[in-house]
TrEMBL record:
Belongs to the diaminopimelate epimerase family. This is Diaminopimelate epimerase. GO terms for cellular component: cytosol. The record marks 166, 216 as: Could be important to modulate the pK values of the two catalytic cysteine residues. HAMAP family: DAP_epimerase. The active site is at 76 (proton donor), 76, 225 (proton acceptor). Its EC number is 5.1.1.7. It is found in: Cytoplasm. Catalyzes the stereoinversion of LL-2,6-diaminopimelate (L,L-DAP) to meso-diaminopimelate (meso-DAP), a precursor of L-lysine and an essential component of the bacterial peptidoglycan. It catalyses: (2S,6S)-2,6-diaminopimelate = meso-2,6-diaminopimelate. Substrate binds at residues 15, 48, 67, 77-78, 164, 198, 216-217, 226-227. One of its GO terms (biological process) is lysine biosynthetic process via diaminopimelate.
Length: 297
């Protein structure tokens, strides 16, 4: 008889996740399996593959994150909100803790079941912390451009680490006008970013609102990226473009980001969705959606 594991298909503003609860039994799924399951042609499809494990630090859960390319990454804000939703329902608490490889994050119950706020911690701005391959004294704008020297298409991004590295290019026109789908792969893998980087285009509308388009490291264009929204909001305030609390518009929906002055923590609030429960054969990676009566737990 084939060995099977159940999964949840979830999303935060269209940022899609496969979630497996491995707190009791750890399924053996390597990078090849993750790539196959993340591919919508061969699996349920997702941007990130999430494994829930027992927390060594004593948090409510440890969240392990793999991108669609099979590589493990440090942080994912939208996934944290989705896992926060599951834990809030599972425990009945109003506040839960989620450990990641870069620390413990806190999730709070929102005004409705689908709304979750996550404390994403304190951003880092030092060039070594992002990291960059060479020193920059001021990371509000570094020397990097795309296009002709005298008329670059994109230039002078802000860089910040919010659990993972981000570069934000500020644009005056519609974010769809700058060819991020073409420039994203090159910028993600630019030599200035030794760990690669998430690349965003940000258009500031006013002191409380901006629009973001994201090329996510190891994923590609994404409908939403929570850490990118956090990075852009923080960088916008550092550059005096916006206030500390902003509404960030993404293709999949909106996130409210507040960079709290009292302790420099970033608070991210937005909606989540549980799409369905499914089942994966560990023998051949075939999968199926489960009807409600077949769900376990």
């Amino acid at each position: 008889m084939a060995s099977h594991v159940q999964f949840l298909k979830m999303n935060g503003l269209g940022n899609a996740f496969i979630v497996i609860d491995a707190r009791k039994t750890m399924p053996q799924l390597g990078a090849d399996a993750v790539r196959s399951l993340a591919n919508a042609q061969t699996g349920p499809g997702c941007d990130q593959f999430i494994t829930l494990e027992a927390s060594p630090a004593g948090a409510d859960v440890f969240m392990r994150i793999h991108n669609a390319d099979g590589g493990e990454v440090e942080a994912c804000g939208n996934a944290t909100r989705c896992i926060g939703r599951l834990l809030l329902a599972e425990t009945g608490k109003t506040v839960v803790s989620v450990e990641t490889v870069v620390g413990v994050l806190t999730a709070y119950r929102g005004d409705s079941q689908d709304m979750v706020m996550v404390d994403m911690g304190v951003p880092k701005f030092g060039w070594q912390d992002i990291p960059l391959s060479e020193p920059f004294e001021d990371t509000r704008a570094i020397e990097l451009q795309v296009g002709p020297i005298d008329a670059p298409i994109l230039h002078s991004p802000s860089v910040v680490n919010v659990g993972n590295p981000h570069a934000i290019f500020w644009v005056k026109n519609d974010v769809e006008s700058y060819g991020l789908e073409a420039n994203g792969p090159m910028l993600e893998n630019h030599m200035i970013f030794p760990d690669r980087a998430n690349i965003s285009l940000a258009q500031v509308h006013n002191s409380k609102e901006l629009t973001l388009k994201v090329w996510e490291r190891g994923v590609g264009l994404t409908r939403a990226c929570g850490t990118a929204a956090c990075a852009a909001a923080v960088a916008a305030h550092r550059n005096r473009f916006t206030e500390r609390k902003v509404l960030v518009h993404l293709p999949g929906g909106d996130l409210t980001i507040e960079w709290r002055e009292a302790d420099e923590h970033i608070l991210m609030t937005g909606s989540t969705e549980l799409e369905y429960v499914g089942d994966i054969s560990l023998d051949d990676l075939t999968w199926r959606k489960l009807p409600d009566q077949d769900r376990v737990g």
